[in-house]
Amino acid sequence: MAVQIIALVVFAAVFVIAEVRRSHIGIVMFAAATGMGLLVAGLALDDIVSGFPIDILILLVGVTFFFGIAKSNGTIGRLVDRALRLVGGNTAALPLTFFVLTGVVSAMGSPLGGLVMAPIGMSVAHRRGIDPMLMALAIGTGLSAGGFAPTSLFGIVTWGTASSAGIALNPLTLFAIAIVANLILLAVSYLLFGARSRTRTTVPAGGAGGGTAGGPVPDDDGPVEREPFRGVQLITVIAMLGLVAAVIVLAVLGNEPDVGVLAFAFGAALTLIDPENGRGALKEIDWSTVLLVGGIITYVGVLQEVGAVDLLGDLAASLTVPVLAALVICAVCGLVSAFASTTGILAALVPLAIPLIAQGGLPGWALICALGVCSSVVDVSPFSTVGATLVATTVDPDERPRMTALLTRWGMSMVVIGPLALVGALVLPAMVIQ
Fold first, then answer.
1. Helix 93-106 / helix 231-252 crossing angle, nearest 10 deg
2. pLDDT, mean of residues 6-31
3. What percent of the chain has pLDDT over 90?
4. Mind listing the pLDDT tens digit for each residue in 356-383?
């Protein structure tokens, strides 16, 4: 147990020290993971390094490169212009619109498929003067809501785990709870960040540009006047539609689509067609975010190898007060999911709730729903795939440090608020009724 506790203490200490010294947390964390694994845990170097999330690297590089080409050749600008003309002056409806669009794509099988909306949504936010944090949370909550559809991975894993344990859980109930919870979070996002959007926006109804209280929002996506799509832009639009279609078709066929690999494939085709903009898109790759996520997840891999995550789960399961145990298990799921794969956490930690349910103290359907949603609402943490993509696709590079800080606070607050709200709203009433 000593090794697990030391590993957890060092993990927390690195966060604090790197923040105080204003150093790159990912680089410091990778070094700490290597030192902890070799010197304290006795792990092989290959085992430590294998924890570096190559899949997230591929996703971030592939998506930001592909949409970087679309931005460089002006396609994003044309699409955003058309979208803003359709919406007119109703800027406030844009985050809700992207919540719905992201949720629909996520419901098609792969929750991460919804990330194809991130580059477009963040570009729209930049053009219309919407706080990028509001748009990021709209996309993140939409992804979480759609991911629990009976046809999507989060919903399938959560409902399947409950079903295999003999727990009665209607998948539509799980989906409805996820939608309601994420809509509430979206409403909170409007309250927290909508005011900044309103002060930044000076666009008249029907306009396509954006502005701030001190001047216009810089337009990185090309001219805003209505111009026809050029040939290369039409090809890029076809490629974007092809990317979305590939994600949906693969999911419907029962395969889990890798958005990063698909983005690389379409990006490779575009850079062969348009080499100049392909070269220009390289600067859009946010290597800082890649290193940030990579270093932290590598350390989380060490924590899993030494059994620190299992230690937290066992601690929760050993509590004799059922409601307190439910709170701790939900918090553990949320905390680990903020740094690791939500799907993996659902498959690994949801079974921890089954002994509590078997004892008869907690309603099974309510606890499983709470666990599932608690594991997902933290996904906008910049240390996870979703949050990292939202930071990387933020148009203004000067906004990215702010986005990282705010998404960290939001994600970590959800580790506490999520369990309190969901256990309070689902588990406690169900205990009274049963």
1. 50
2. 85
3. 26
4. 776 666 788 888 899 999 999 999 998 8
- The answer to whether the CB of 84 falls within 8 A of the CB of 124 is yes
Amino acid, single-letter form, for residue 427: V
CA-CA distance, 132 to 404, in Å (whole number)?
Answer: 11
User: Do residues 338 and 383 make contact, with C-beta atoms less than 8 angstroms apart?
Assistant: yes
Backbone angles phi, psi at 212, to 5 degrees: -120, 170
Token output for 79? 């699409």
Distance of CA 239 to the CA centre of its chain: 23
pTM of the model: 0.70
- The chain-wide mean pLDDT, for the chain, equals 81
DSSP at 212:
E
| pLDDT winner (highest mean) among 76-80, 111-115, 162-166, 412-416 | 412-416
The rounded distance, in Å, linking the Cα atoms of 351 and 283 is 44
* Residue closest to 378 by CA, chosen among 353, 415, 344: 415
Residue type for position 24: H
Greater model confidence, 147 or 348: 147
Q: What are the distances in angstroms from CA 407 to CA 94, 112, 131, 132?
A: 20, 18, 13, 11
| Cβ(80)–Cβ(65) below 8 Å | no
In which domain, by residue range, is 420 found? 2-433
Q: In total, how many domains does the chain have?
A: 1
Cα–Cα distance for residue pair 234/73, rounded to 1 Å:
11
Contacts of 196 (CB under 8 A, 6+ apart): 131, 134
Look-up of token digits 């307190």: 324
Question: What DSSP line would sit under 127-195, residue for residue?
Answer: HHT--HHHHHHHHHHHHHHHHTSTTSHHHHHHHHHHHHTT----HHHHHHHHHHHHHHHHHHHHHHHHH
Q: Shortest CA distance to 312 belongs to which of 8, 3, 2? A: 8
